Input
Amino acid sequence: MTLNLFSDPIELTKALVDIPSPSHHEEAIADAVEEALRDLDQDTVEVQRYGNTVCARTNRGFESRVVLAGHIDTVPLADNVPHTMSEDGEIMYGCGTVDMKSGMAVYLNAFAQLYNSDELKHDLTVIAYEGEEVATEFNGLGHLQKDHPEWLKGDLALLGEPSGAMIEAGCQGTIRVRVTAHGTRAHSARAWLGSNAAHTLVPVMLNVANYQPRDVEIDGCTYKEGLNIVHLESGVATNTIPDEAWMFVNFRFAPDRSSEEAMAHLMEVLGEHENITVEVDDIAGAALPGLGQPAARALVDAVGGNVRAKYGWTDVARFSEMGTPAVNFGAGDPGFAHKKDEQVPVTQITEVSTALLNYLKG
Output
């Protein structure tokens, strides 16, 4: 399919949605995006492709650079491609409409409209990356961070995650640990011959249950931390003392903590106990909102000051690790992501596009 990057972002969203691109099958959409970007003036635009991640940037010598990034893969299809429209034409349905082909459409359109415009006030980088909806090892932005970090450098990065057409700044970090209690199996009629691992786990469970999380305000955004047991297992048989009990504990931490500081705090809360081990299952750093940066303040003004904290983890953290402040900015309700009836209000696509163009024009 040939993409027209200059078409209305609503129409461009339709075109992107109509190219099926579940994770590991992004080649067709990457081909289309690459072809469309290479049709721009190559004296002004540098285009590179790494796997099924496509990057383009201007090098016009502006004092600041804005990075526009979005993933082009989706979750598996659920008979929801091609797109459909509501009877009144106000809602677009289809896999990827909200997560996040509408955001990608807005970003590609803005890049095409402004890359050689006299109104542009910042150099631009646009990144359409693969593998976001699957394991981290496949994430195209992560591959760039490792192998081509220069593509993530800028004064501000925008990620097209659905955010209700407002800015969701930074993101929380996350740590998940497996806490395992070890005991000795025995018949419950002769419990004194064993050691109940479930009972051994209780003090740690109480530490988590009694934990009082912080609310942290950064750049006018309030991040709510949370520490929770999210999975719990034990038991052998109904007449047997269990010799193992384990749980996953998830700590969502505010971006004023580094991953190392968050881990140290988590271990302090869990405490030291005999016959209990702790293993790290997953860890991802937080991202500071960076709204105090001049480039970010101008974006906040462009959206009328509509800003809130991002509570989940997103790829903005990768930019933050590279020293580039980053925010989430896209159309639609993230609650519809991954659903069979995934949808986006088309007015929000226009709203995000208008705000972005106004911001980039300075």
